[in-house]
Amino acid sequence: MRIRSLALATTVAGALVASTFSVSAQHADTKMADATRAVCVFIPTKSGAGVSGHVTFTKVDKGTRVQAEITGLAPGKHGFHIHEFGDASSPDGKAAGGHFNPKGATHGDPSKTAPRHLGDLGNIEADASGKATYDMVDPDLPLSGPMSILGHGVVIHEKADDFGQPVGNAGGRVAVGVIGVAKGN
Ligand SMILES: [Cu+2]
Ligand SMILES: [Zn+2]
């Protein structure tokens, strides 16, 4: 009797584990395909000690609303881009690779209609206290599909992006983060 109920309990537990795994796998797939909100939390690089904050990407009628609040920056403009890799593992931020450019375009200013890397977000500008905010609706940044920004990186640079070629002369990297699916999708 005791052995039989133990066997039954084991079977039930096994079935529960199996169904939990398949439900969570389906759930994850759905979220990755249909995300409506993503978030990237910044990790300071070695040269960016003290920089912190995050950026959110929210699907809206006219595209994707990009909202950021960053503190601990040197006052002035800092290049702000989505980079190819969601890899914040190197102390200089370079593991994030180059600008996210799935369309093979040239570097540019997102406020103009001229060509741009999909990842070109322009600049964030810090005030005298080192705080920067950013709030723009970008018509071209997808949160799903083959050009989805999910899983890619975001880099904050040392200097301003002057929109020169090939990548805007924004210098070193002071913070890097990874764009992930946000809670509350
Ligand atoms: Cu960059
Ligand atoms: Zn670029």
Which ligands are bound? copper (II) ion, zinc ion
Main pleated sheet: 8 strands, antiparallel, barrel
Distance between the termini: 48 Å
Based on helices, strands and strand pairing, what is the structural class?
alpha+beta
As for the number of domains, it is 2
* β-sheet strand percentage: 25-35%
Low-pLDDT runs of 5+ residues are 8-26
- Provide mean pLDDT, rounded: 88
CATH architecture of the largest domain: Sandwich
Structural overview:
- This protein has 185 residues and is α+β, with helices and mostly antiparallel strands.
- It folds into two domains: 1-34; 35-181, Sandwich (Immunoglobulin-like).
- 18% of the residues lie in helices and 33% in strands.
- It contains one helix and nine strands.
- Residues 79, 81, 83, 99, 155, 157, 170 line the site of copper (II) ion.
- Copper (II) ion binds next to strand 5 and strand 8.
Keywords, separated by commas or semicolons:
alpha+beta, binds zinc ion, 185 residues, binds copper (II) ion, 8-stranded antiparallel β-barrel, 33% strand, Immunoglobulin-like, 2 domains
